[in-house]
Specification:
This protein is of the alpha/beta class and 382 residues long. The chain has two domains: 204 residues, no CATH class; 83 residues, no CATH class. Helices cover 38% and strands 16% of the residues.
């Protein structure tokens, strides 16, 4: 025999009372002592009924200006736009279909901790005037927060994923009015876009990862030539991320974003022909040679390798045309190597080739100084 009311009961954190409160479902039980929302299977064959009942609850909460608590619900595709004057809690709710909250206005708490979004989640142009809590939420596909506005605290920490690639999160043109209250932590942001969003002051936890190929999602989009995503804008994203981590003295992580910033600047040449663009960005580019010599000042090891190889390479280059017999190779090479080493360290110059080597030496020594200084700063300041 079914009970009159749904048996679901659970506790959740209430931001307004600043403590845990007990939620007891007041919906009538329809199967297995559970209501249309809390039964894990009922929604599959009764989507229309579940959706209509959900919209009734939303409208009743709005009309009475009451808190809307949807703790542990199972929902099909739903649309919940418009204004919510009171707090809204979707704690541990499973959105089995599209969750459309676009253009919604949450005047108080918008709680989605441990919510599961099986399909796309749309928060386009949504206003979060109170706390926005997505702690432990699971996004399976796309989550769009484009042009959203966050006025108070926002928590995007301990986010979960149900696939190796992870979801795609769009924080494009987002306004964080109090960035010091915004938290991203314990999650892989490899597929997260921050185009046109100022992330220079938000909190990025040390447990955040950015994928394995050292490129943020927006740079990969620019590499694919996606519409309206170009390297100049991506360089700005990198710069803001770098500024964020430098302000927290996380210099090693900041160095990675500096490399990404410089890479985007190098690749930003607007040349339509792919061959000419490659030549322009990889050969006739000062930034390209900056990369080759020292990885934009981030690798002192690369500079030292150049210092060791440059005199030997030039000595070998000028030895070959000077040889008249193979037996002379070692003697001439050693003499040329000695001359090149003298020239490299600004001690002697006898011909234009050695003069060019001296100029290269000055560039490399400058790069070595920059690289070592950065390593020193990171070791003793970070």
């Amino acid at each position: 025999m079914q009970s009159e009311k749904c048996m679901f009961k659970d506790r959740y954190w209430d931001f307004e009372s600043e403590g845990f409160v007990t939620f007891k479902c007041s919906e009538p039980a329809i199967k297995d002592n559970l209501c249309v929302f809390h039964h894990p299977e009922y929604w599959k064959e009764n989507e229309k009924q579940v959706r209509e009942r959900f919209h009734e609850k939303v409208e009743a909460a709005r009309r009475n200006k009451e808190k809307l608590v949807c703790r542990g619900y199972n929902l099909p595709s739903i649309e919940a736009t418009g204004e919510f004057e009171s707090s809204v809690y979707f704690s541990r709710t499973k959105f089995h279909g599209m969750a459309n909250f676009s253009n919604a206005r949450f005047c108080k708490v918008a709680g989605f901790p441990h919510a599961e979004f099986s399909e796309n989640a749309d928060f386009f142009h949504t206003t979060f005037s109170g706390v926005a809590d997505f702690f432990g939420a699971q996004f399976s596909k796309e989550a769009k927060f484009e042009r959203a506005r966050f006025s108070e605290s926002a928590f995007f920490t301990n986010l979960r994923k149900d696939s190796k690639e992870g979801p795609v999160l769009f924080f494009t043109d987002v306004n964080f009015e109090k960035p010091e209250l915004v938290w991203f932590g314990q999650f892989d942001l490899a597929n997260t876009s921050f185009l046109y969003t100022d992330v220079s002051k938000i909190n990025i936890g040390e447990t955040v990862t950015w994928g394995s190929d050292r490129r943020i999602f927006d740079e990969r989009r620019a590499d694919r030539a996606e519409h309206a995503v170009h390297y100049g804008i991506v360089a700005t994203v990198y710069r803001r991320l770098r500024q964020n981590l430098e302000s927290k003295m996380r210099y090693t992580d900041a160095g990675r974003f500096f490399i990404g910033e410089m890479e985007c600047k190098r690749k930003s040449a607007r040349v339509n022909n792919p061959v000419l663009r490659w030549i322009r960005t990889n050969i006739f580019s000062a930034l390209a040679w900056y990369k080759y010599m020292s990885n934009y000042g981030e690798s002192y090891r690369r500079v030292i390798l150049w210092v060791l190889l440059a005199p030997a390479a030039v000595a070998l280059l000028i030895t070959v045309p000077q040889m008249s017999q193979p037996s002379e190779f070692i003697t001439i090479l050693l003499q040329n190597l000695q001359n090149c080493i003298y020239a490299f360290f600004q001690l002697k110059t006898d011909n234009p080739v050695e003069l060019a080597l001296r100029i290269l030496s000055l560039l490399l020594m400058g790069q070595l100084y920059i690289s070592l200084r950065r390593q020193f700063e990171r070791r003793y300041k970070g």
